Write a sequence for this structure.
């Protein structure tokens, strides 16, 4: 099992300024590299405290690249619907070069009606723009004088600059919220996978991961495919503190998500079946149930170790957990301490036997 | 007079990789800060060696922000026609926070038909998209629940996240290639100005700067407005080396520009009168004439000092020269040495008497 660090800022400007959030997060990026985490990852959202401190993952990861030299940098995810593929492919290729080939690109469809409306993009086009975005970026990265003839975008012959550092292109991950079909499609295409367990059932997640692995194997792609699974993790020597933090921050996350998805109450899209119930789901959120159900990691070292063991058992050990340690308004010191505890005392229990170079305990993530 | 460092990569991938170009340029950014330069600045271009290593100024400047703490970071310029203003305003606000308020935003119209074609944007919309892009970004930065009703973009009520660090918003510069009218418009609007002397006559540049200053004063905006003027600078103790570098690199620049503008030969736009002759102009370029005409700075310390004195005399001393020291394929060491010589032996002759804090000689830029 591998472990990375995830950033999904759910932050009220009145409680933590953007400058402070970035300062703290970039310190955590440096700490993540020094502790041996596999990647740092950041989301793309607009226009509200729900992720809105990260409208441009490339900007954050370019700063992260300048502060580090080994850790991988992942978008989780970029939204091709909101950026023209000529720009998106070029920005990501720049980041791949700025980081000397450390980029992993997660692509997402987006799901907030307010974001589509702000960009003047019909939400019904979200799948077409997602699929074309991936196809166009891969084409621009892989060849020269690219001609692209999609339903939304048509361009070329056009050569993308700069060429990506990784050849033929950076690894492509598909971010899938809850659809076994799109996981299977990602597997058939030979892409890697990002999933978010908090928005699906455990059986649903097993089906998604299994569907992905099977489709990928049947299509004959080499390797098993990399799977990043996103959790928030509250870890402390003080059990009461970890659980109190978890309850408060998860409550804040859910409240902000409920606001962000509120426009689903008066939006219907055949592309997003059932999303009109999203706000109801958010409102009926119960922290204790979520914790018991393995949707969030929280507690002391032995507890979190057990929670991770359960994940390995349910979904297989061949995963990379992308862990958010500084959600919302958590003080920097608590996030840093949790990262240290996890790297030093939880991760080593799940080290891959194949890990080539023996590392000191704290770095054996 | 103030001095900054400008990056306009005209680089063949076969001669210098993008990763090497960024590595060297970020080292020069750190050097620029240590030598006391006022800003670093980078362009936005796509799809060819003519600027194509910088499709995303925010990515480069975010890395630069992570490596520095005082120097200002300028886009020179971002192209609003190619990025939706909701994304552009948010990316720039992120950079403003990543850098703790060190961002200056230059907006440009773009002028390469191939770029407009790749983005599927009619070149006839370039002015509308430029003007709307500035207006929409300023509106998103300055207020909440912004409603924008433009000819191209309509959105809102929408609140941009994050809020910019600088209040009400980062300084706005208008990048103007050759039009006194657009300089006057920039002055009336209270914006700052970026100009490129290499593409206009000296009289033309005087008219542009004078028109800007007059319009700005008449409109009653406080202060004189900041004017950034872009030159490439080849400076060495060895006169022959400086001039040989200048001749070779300027030749490369003009050849790559000629390719990039070649589609003007079969493009006509009422929005770009005379641009169909751009390729001819590029082909008739003569280095010795350009040097004699003050379009490029090159030579030893006394020569470049004299060239800068002439600029101060012709356009007024109240300028910021944005100097490119590493065009095209120049080795890092030569660019770094030129920056040191300029900061140590040219800039002090033009120090503002109002400079508040005395600096050691090498830092008195």
């Amino acid at each position: 099992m591998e472990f990375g660090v995830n950033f999904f800022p759910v932050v009220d400007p009145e409680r933590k300024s953007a400058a402070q959030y970035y300062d703290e997060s970039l310190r955590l990026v440096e700490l993540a590299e020094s502790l041996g985490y596999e990647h740092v990852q950041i989301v793309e959202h607009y226009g509200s405290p729900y992720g809105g401190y990260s409208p441009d993952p490339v900007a954050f990861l370019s700063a992260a690249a300048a502060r580090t030299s080994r850790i991988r940098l992942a978008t989780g995810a970029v939204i091709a619907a909101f950026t023209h593929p000529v720009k998106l492919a070029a920005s990501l290729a720049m980041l791949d070069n700025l980081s000397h080939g450390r980029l992993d690109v997660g692509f997402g469809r987006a799901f907030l009606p307010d974001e589509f409306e702000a960009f003047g993009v019909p939400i019904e086009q979200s799948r077409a723009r997602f699929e074309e975005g991936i196809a166009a970026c891969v084409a621009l990265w892989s060849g020269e004088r690219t001609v692209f003839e999609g339903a939304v975008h048509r361009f070329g012959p056009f050569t993308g600059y700069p060429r990506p550092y990784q050849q033929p292109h950076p690894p492509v991950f598909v971010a899938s919220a809850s659809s076994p079909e799109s996981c299977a499609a990602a597997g058939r295409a030979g892409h890697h996978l990002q999933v978010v367990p908090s928005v699906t059932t455990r059986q649903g997640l097993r089906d998604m991961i299994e569907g992905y692995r099977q489709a990928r194997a049947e299509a004959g792609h080499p390797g098993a495919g990399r799977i990043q699974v996103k959790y928030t993790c509250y870890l402390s020597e003080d059990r009461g503190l970890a659980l109190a933090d978890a309850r408060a921050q998860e409550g804040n996350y859910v409240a902000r998500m409920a606001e962000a998805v509120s426009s689903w109450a008066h939006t219907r899209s055949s592309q997003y079946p059932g999303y009109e119930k999203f706000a109801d789901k958010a409102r009926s959120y119960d922290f204790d149930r979520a914790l018991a159900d393995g949707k969030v990691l929280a507690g002391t070292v032995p507890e979190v170790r057990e929670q991770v063991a359960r994940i390995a058992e349910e979904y297989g050990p061949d995963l990379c957990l992308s862990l958010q340690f500084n959600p919302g308004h958590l003080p920097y010191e608590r996030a840093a301490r949790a990262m240290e505890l996890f790297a030093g005392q939880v991760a080593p229990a799940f080290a891959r036997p194949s890990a080539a170079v023996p590392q000191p305990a704290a770095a054996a993530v």
